[in-house]
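Appendix C reproduces, verbatim, an entry submitted by the partner laboratory led by Prof. M.T., so that reviewers can inspect both the input and the predicted structure.
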Amino acid sequence: MTAPDIVLVGLGNPGDEYQGTRHNLGYEVVDLLTSRHSRRTPYMKHRAWLMPVEIGGRDVLLVKPLTFMNSSGHSVREVLDACDLAPEAAWIVVDDYNIPLGALRIRLRGSDGGHNGIASVIESLSTREFPRFRLGIGSAPGRMPTIKYVLGRFRREEKKEAEALVAHAADAVAYAARDGLTQAMSRFNRTLAVEPD
């Protein structure tokens, strides 16, 4: 495999039963970037869905791990090893219930924040030093268990914000590929992707 400049990894769970769930926003960002930047057919390798594209003048490998969320790091490690890339080349796109719905937070490093997918990546890469694009889904209402909430689908009144957030994150990835992560943080980190009426 020719080494890309960036390995852009959207975290999620494979299978129709998980499509459209809050936990699969990472997959949705990868799907949107694929539709914007490629007409080719993806391929499967390293326990992942892979699509090489060019974004912002850089070679980017779009990745959707197929190992299920809690084991995402195994696939990420395999892809980086195959490309002979360091952990910081992996940009992870992930949902985050600690952030309000519609918010995007780009960070260069950090803890797992209670997210099992990020925890798996940290464990597999033996470092916290990799960028992540955190898409806010808001917290579970009332006493609803967090796992039930993140594996649920957006309510009708939330869908517009969720779709705008996915587009906002895809724009942020493209901008970061061209102008750098620090510049993207200044431009795209904000509270709401859709302003209230």
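Residues 159-179 form the longest helix (21 residues). Additional entries are available on request from the coordinating office.
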